[in-house]
Amino acid sequence: MKTLKTLFRDELADMYDAERRLVKALPKMAKAATCPDLRKAILSHLKETQGHVKKLEQVFQSFDEKVRGQTCEATVGLLEEADEIAADFKGSPAINAALISAAQKVEHYEIASYGCLHEWAGLLGNTRAAGLLQEILDEEKAANESLTELARASSNEDALGESDGMGSEKAAGNASGKLRRGVRPVVAGRNRAGFSSR
To answer: Which domain holds residue 83?
Structure first.
């Protein structure tokens, strides 16, 4: 019979794999970024992510469990999408907004996962694990907020570009206050997982 402890152990192994994959992926994302502030934010989060790997190892140890990973299919898919985005938008004014979008998808997945793990550790009576998982969760939330601030500060507006035919609409939207800040660009014509772009 599968219990909460089994679920916790499996999800922990999933996130251990995810963080180790991110340690390899974040330098590539930083290299693809053309905004120095975004590059700096990604490399800063890389250091935190390396720390997350160590903290997860401590969580395993706090349960007297062997440290192990199991393939995190969600992270594999999100990182494949990030690679596609970096290739598709290389040289585009939208590259930084696109990278922020890809990175925030990962952050949101991590926030959801660590939120559950933190709660479950508490239910399982392991305050040491709950504390470590809360630390990771707080860092993931801060990283996500930092990305939102970068998007709003410049990357989203840079993504509008001068050659996309939206210059007059941008000006009109700003004048009327209808242009929403922080909205990520929609990628027209992309057809992933069988979804129509029409």
So the answer is: 4-176
Cα(116)–Cα(127) distance, rounded to whole angstroms? 14
What is the Cα–Cα distance from 78 to 61, expressed in whole angstroms? Answer: 28
Q: What is the pLDDT of residues 65-103, one digit of tens each?
A: 999 999 999 999 999 999 999 999 999 999 999 999 999
For residue 162, the model assigns a pLDDT of: 52
pLDDT tens by residue, 133-156: 999 999 999 999 999 999 999 999
In the chain, pLDDT over 70 holds for what percent of residues?
81
Asked whether residue 195 is domain-assigned, the answer is: no
Q: Is residue 123 part of a domain?
A: yes
Structure pTM? 0.81
Number of domains in the chain: 1
Contacts of residue 64, Cβ cutoff 8 Å, sequence gap at least 6: none
Q: Are 83 and 32 in contact (CB under 8 A)?
A: no
CA–CA dist 112, 4 (Å, integer): 17
Please check whether residue 197 lies inside any domain of the structure.
Answer: no
Tokens 């933190």, residue located: 118
- Amino acid identity of 163? S
Helices (H), the chain: 4-32, 36-62, 73-88, 95-123, 127-150, 156-160, 167-176
